[in-house]
Amino acid sequence: MEKDNEIIEIKPKNMFAAISITQIICVVVILLAVLVIKLGFKPSFIKLQDWCKNNILEPTHITAVFDGEQQ
Fold first, then answer.
1. Are 24 and 32 within 8 A, CB to CB?
2. Cα–Cα distance measured from residue 36 to residue 42, given in angstroms and rounded to the nearest whole number
3. pTM of the full predicted structure?
4. What is the mean pLDDT of each run of 10 residues along the chain (71 residues)?
């Protein structure tokens, strides 16, 4: 009984198109969700907008001074 050792070469697939399509679908779903919330649920959208302004778009203030090594 002879055992043949075969080397199977795996070629990577080009996933650029699949990843791009998935990203486009995600962006469209997010935009549609925001549009539905904005047009259909006005009070909820105002609360969400205020939350985003307070938590996500909060400006960063640097108060410490770092003395790095200067040559």
1. no
2. 10
3. 0.54
4. 75 90 97 90 88 85 69 56
